[in-house]
Amino acid sequence: MSAKPNVNRWAIAVVAAVGMAGGYLYWRSTWVGSSNPLESAKVIPQDALMAAYVVTDEHQWSKLDEFGTPGAQAAIARTVANLEADFLAQTNLDYKKDLQPWIGNVTLAIVPSSGTEVATTHLNSDLLLIVGIKNPFRAWWFARNLKSQSELTLNEFNYKGVTVSQIVPPHGIPAYQAKVNNKLVISQQRRAVEKAIDATTSDSSFLMKSGAKELVGQSTKLDNALIHFYLPDYSQTVAPMGNRMSDRPSLPQVEGVNSVLLSAGLDQQGMRVRFLTEVDPQSIPQYPPVSNQLLNRFPAETIALVNGHGMGRSWSTLVAQSQAQPELQAILIAIRQMFASVNLDVDREVFGWMDGEFGFGLISSNQGLLGQLGFGGAVVFETSDRPAAEAMLQKLDAIGRNVVPFPLAIAQRNVSGINVQEWKIPLQGALLGHGWLDDNSVFIAFGGPIVDAIATPATSLQDNPTFQEMVGSLPNPNHGYLYLDMEQITSLINTLPFMMGVQISPEALDLLNSVRGIGGTGTWTSATQFESEMLFTLRKTKEIATQ
What we know:
Helix content: 25-40%
Oligomer: single chain
């Protein structure tokens, strides 16, 4: 390492070493980890609001190189290069030579700020970085060189038997660091480092926080996980976050959610993400799993689908939760007003009878009115209150006759024994149709070809090989699926912007073209625990190269 006068390179390097773990490692890593989530949690202060653990095993991250188009890989490489340049611009350090040999797995924690210190984020909280040391000798050598830099002021003091170093650059904010349990803890706030030392010298670590020990213990359930995100006190953390960051995207406020664990990793199919949510059963009661038999009503040409159970019950839950959330209440009022404008009571006439399984699907088609658009849609509901559903459909037809601002011919058509009420635009074809598939299953389809496909699917979605690949490894029984055939959807996206006068960047298209599909589902593992999993199947680079 060559000297570079008047630059606070070593102070920045210490922060950069861990900052890169949060951004650089998100895309691609070349470090090998040495610690585990449980060991790192013992260094996190008990009052930490949230924490993230990043595995830095080069072999595990290298699996990402197997996926994606050349354009997507080039975009990721540029992102990595830019991040590295940003973090190391003022250090004159060689990342692989100076940092990689000794840095192991990394933990980032958000801890409340001390009342006497200046907050470093919009949340009145400080960032604490915990770096695993996989090679003590190389770490010692790095620290030795740090102390020899004349442009820096290095002050050391003792806190509960641990040496804490204050690194003061010629310009900028000082940083504090200490070696604790073979880990380097770093923060721009002295008190944050002292809290980490307190966590190891008394029973005040993150593991003592309500719900945190259980979350950390669950971290091992996803094979090949690379990132874990812990939010042990969801409601108490998300509410102030939303208030202080109202101008930015934030986590949704959901009453009854106690804690959340997110884990993500790579496997042979692509990226797998797992959510584990602990809830209050009084606020979010457990529901039985769905049969998924409704999926047989959707044809193999379905390119996107969401299905589940109890749409009406979900609406009632939202209504109950809105009493304590003015923002949600405003949204529900707007929805009610929208339906009221066409003489529909959304609570009673729309959601009131939706007590069975349901499915929403987009289905590819280039026939009739769907010729230019390339797809249509359909919804299927099971209900125990057929009269209420039929009353709503009658009102729907009245809307077609009296409100739709162009002429419609509304008449019945028989499709393989199923009576369908269709809205037709003269000389163009059917716009919408609805009917009963059996005594308790009603459908509404948009586009004449979609009416036929729902009424008499030649092959069902469950026989579609792409659907089987997306959901085959997901938990079953479950509470419904999310399914996106991204290859088909991306093909439509390539066409729609041209029709709408919108242009999508080549980089975004490269990323879209790298994803084959997305599958997701969720299931109750106990009365208080809901587990959901998402699979992003990625296209193999070698397969793309041969096409």
